[in-house]
Amino acid sequence: MFQALPRIGRRGALLGSAAAAVVLGLLLWWLLPLGEESPSGSITFSTGTPTGVYQKYGTMLQDEFAKDMPNLDVRLQNSDGSQENVRRVATGQADFTIAAADAVETYMLQGTPGSDMLRGCARLYDDYVHVVVPRSSSVKSVADLRGKKVAVGPSGSGVRLIADHVLQAAGLDPKEDIVPLPDGIGTMPTLLKQHKIDAFFWSGGLPTSAVQKLSQSFRIKLLPIGSDLVEKLHQQGGASSYYRAAVMPADAYPKAQLGESVQTVAVANLLITREDSDPKLTEQLTRTVINSRDHIGAVVHAAQLVDLRTAVYTDPLQLHEGARRYYRSVKP
Q: Cβ of 251: how many Cβ atoms within 10 Å?
């Protein structure tokens, strides 16, 4: 026969219930940010061109923000790229954005309105410079673009800024020695396929879908930007000091590279805001950006390169106080 279980007295039951409540309370405290209200209101996040990495990354971040901050309305705003993004945040037209470090430095050196208010939240990933020509082209270097029709991006884009610097480093005047066209990545591939341009510049994360799709339907090659040009870029000083020698891996665009890596230059992208942004909002937003790396990186390859160990280095910008709080909270 089974032995009867011992009776639990009323006092024992109460003590057991109290202990369970304490354990449950501690578990909830650990799992949930009790006492911390989700940021509310609305913010504007300036992204980029519809087919660029900024836009795709921004769209996925918008979904992550909605999960972590359900009371916050995040509105995305397309732009021509880094230079326009920096100006929007500096002048209060946008609250947060992604922009390349050279565009940030250029804006600050010009002393334009709001430049002293700009602050960094995180260093994200690097943009790589693409110089794309048909594979059948006789052009083998940037210097060979003399006299050619070259799409260099809209005036407010980061690609226009970096294209001008690279062309100058190669001994070309961006306005006189080529025929510059202000087209962006949305139309560059089509223009190249239709032979309406001879080449185009692009600066973006790897791989950029527009370049990838072009390489699968049209025979292209990527021009190298060697160490000699990198040295000349650094001699320019200013924003050009943020360019570094890089290698585009052979598997970035297999159809275009045919198993070979390409020497180029890269520049860091930064998540930026203004000094007067709410610290709690900025802290939570920075946390979401870092924590969503793997999830977003499965779709936007560049996001895989976001690294907590280097995210704190937002030169040329000082860290925003909210971002500083986040990094302190996760410091081992």
A: 11
Q: How many Å apart are CA 323 and CA 285, to the nearest integer?
A: 8
Q: What is the DSSP letter of 117?
A: G
Residue 86 CA: distances (Å) to CA of 118, 152, 204, 236, 329: 8, 19, 16, 22, 28
H/E run at residue 268: strand 262-274
Q: What is this structure's pTM?
A: 0.85
Please write the tens of the pLDDT for every residue from 156-174.
899 999 999 999 999 999 9
Residue 132 pairs in a beta bridge with 200, 222
DSSP string, 34-101: TT-PPP-EEEEEE---TTSHHHHHHHHHHHHHHHH-TTEEEEEE--S-HHHHHHHHHTTS-SEEEEEH
Quick one: which H or E segment has residue 122? strand 118-134
* Encoded tokens for 175: 């306005």
Neighbours of 172 (CB within 10 A): 21
Q: What is the pLDDT of residues 95-113, one digit of tens each?
A: 999 999 999 999 999 988 8
CA dihedral 210, 211, 215, 216 (to 10 degrees): -30
Determine the number of helices (DSSP H) and then strands (DSSP E) in the chain: 13, 10
Decide: helix, strand or coil at residue 264: strand
